[in-house]
Amino acid sequence: MKGTGMKIGIIGAGNIGATLAHKLSEQGHTVKLANSRGPETISELARKAGAVAVERQEAVRDVDVIILSIPFDKHAELAELLHNIPESVIVIDTSNYYPFRDGDIEKIREGKPESVYASEIVRRPLVKAWNAVLAETLKDKGLAAGSPSRIAIPVAGDNLAAKSVALELVSQTGFDAVDAGTLSESWRQQPGTPAYCTELKAGELEAALQAANKTRAPLNRDALIEEFTSAGAQLTHDAIVKRNREVTA
Question: According to CATH, what is the number of the domain 70-186?
Answer without folding.
Answer: 3.40.50.720
